[in-house]
Each structure stands twice: as structure tokens, then as C-alpha cells.
Design a protein that fits this description.
243 residues, mainly beta, Jelly Rolls, eight-stranded antiparallel β-sheet
Length: 243
């Protein structure tokens, strides 16, 4: 797990002290050429940040989010309290930024490509304990933990990565509502609960919302590498009644 948390300690410390009384405007408003919204629903807003050296970004803010690195870069960050720290970004890097953050940055090398999953439930102060979430007995992590490895979990999200090579099979399992982010290229033969089959192709940078998925699969080619951000507010939300 340490591979996913190899961040500069000074930057990690800066995340807890960078908020100001009057926050800068939202990143998508301040710097839309870098920060592009991919989709939004009642649980999340997902954006992609892209830039190439020697880009920079003015002071802006982010609400609580999951950070997923997609490329290699080094950025010099200026925090709201005036401190300066460095952040190295790499593919597969995952961080929870639970207090949000406020910063500007200069890209020192490489290419920034980050997927940010902003979690709307985390914006509200929590009063008392949040209800526990329940998962199906055939939850992916329980059924196939060699492929589905939990990276972090808190009151708002559970994040896992899924990795597998050609020929690997995964038995029937389920996923609650989650954001799917692919880092690898693969072709899978998916088997659904009704016995039907469908081909599913993944590619780097593929991002989508999936809700209450259940399937088995066989990896026909390539390598699966997926980061899944399960959003607990989607599990806690009341289910619509059906006739």
C-alpha cells in the first residue's frame, strides 16, 4: 500500500493548514483550460486536470476529493498560508484530500493528468456518526481480493484498485455505486447475472459512473488496471420504489 501514498511529507502537512477564511474560487471557474468537468450527479463531480510543462495555475480551491494521478509530473505548490511545497504525481497515485485544498501551482516538469472525484457528502459537516453501509455478500473485495485491493476507506468513500493479466477470470461479484477510472488497456468478456455476455473494452483515461453492477468476467487481452471510487452516499441514499 505504501506505493500509493508516496507523497512529499511537507505537502501532506500543508493540506491540513492551507484553508483560509475566504477561499479562492472553484478550480473549474478560475482555470477552466486546465480543469474540465467530465460528469456530475447528486453524489460526485468528476473533473480532469491536464497541463504540460511549463504551465501554471492561479490560486483556486477544491472541495473534498479523491486524487488519482494518471501521468508523471512535479508541481511547485503555493498554499493559501504562503507556504510552498512540492508534489510529485505518478500514474496510480491515490490520495484522499478530506478538507479540500486551496493553492496555486507551477509545473516544474512532466505532464499533469489527474482525475479528481469530488465527493458532495464530504462538503457537509458530519453531526454524529454516519450510518454504516451494507454490501452484498458477493462484494468484489470479499469474493476476489487478489484482484480487488482496498487502498483507503473512510466515512465517505472506499477506494480500491483492480489489477489482472490476460486469461484471469473473476467470479460473479457486485459493486455499489462507484466512479470507474481506467489506467490500462484490456478487453473483457463480461457475464451478467442473467447469463448474457458482453464485451467490455477499457483504455487509459476512461472514466464513468457505474451503479449497482453485478458481473463475472474473463480477461481476453491486455491488462486491467482500474481505480474504483465507491461513494457511500450512494449506498445510503433511499432506493426508489418500483411497481
Amino acid at each position: 500500500m505504501k506505493h500509493y501514498w508516496a507523497i512529499v511529507p511537507a505537502f501532506a502537512l500543508g493540506l491540513t493548514v492551507s484553508a483560509s477564511a475566504q477561499k479562492s474560487q472553484d478550480a473549474v471557474i478560475v482555470d477552466p483550460k486546465v480543469h474540465s468537468v467530465l460528469f456530475e450527479n447528486e453524489h460526485v463531480r468528476v473533473f480532469e486536470a491536464r497541463a504540460t510543462y511549463p504551465a501554471s495555475s492561479p490560486m483556486h480551491s477544491h472541495p473534498p476529493f479523491v486524487f488519482i494521478g494518471m501521468d508523471n509530473a512535479r508541481a511547485k505548490m503555493r498554499l493559501a498560508d504562503g507556504k510552498t511545497v512540492f508534489l510529485d504525481v505518478y500514474p496510480g497515485q491515490v490520495m484522499w484530500v478530506g478538507d479540500g485544498m486551496e493553492h496555486s501551482w507551477d509545473l516544474m516538469s512532466g505532464r499533469v493528468r489527474v482525475i479528481a472525484v469530488e465527493v458532495k457528502s464530504a462538503r457537509k459537516p458530519v453531526v454524529g456518526a454516519l450510518p454504516a453501509v451494507t454490501r452484498k455478500a458477493n462484494d468484489a473485495v470479499a469474493v476476489d481480493p487478489d484482484v480487488h485491493h482496498v487502498l483507503l476507506e473512510n466515512d465517505h468513500v472506499r477506494v480500491f484498485d483492480a489489477r489482472a493479466g490476460k486469461g484471469r477470470k473473476s467470479p460473479m461479484h457486485s459493486h455499489p455505486g462507484f466512479v470507474f477510472i481506467s489506467l490500462g488497456t484490456a478487453r473483457l468478456n463480461m457475464t451478467l447475472p442473467d447469463g448474457k455476455n458482453a464485451i467490455f473494452d477499457t483504455y487509459p483515461g476512461q472514466v464513468m459512473w457505474m451503479d449497482n453492477v453485478e458481473h463475472a468476467w474473463e480477461l481476453l487481452s491486455g491488462e486491467v488496471q482500474v481505480i474504483a471510487v465507491e461513494v457511500k452516499s450512494a449506498q445510503r441514499a433511499p432506493k426508489a420504489k418500483t411497481d
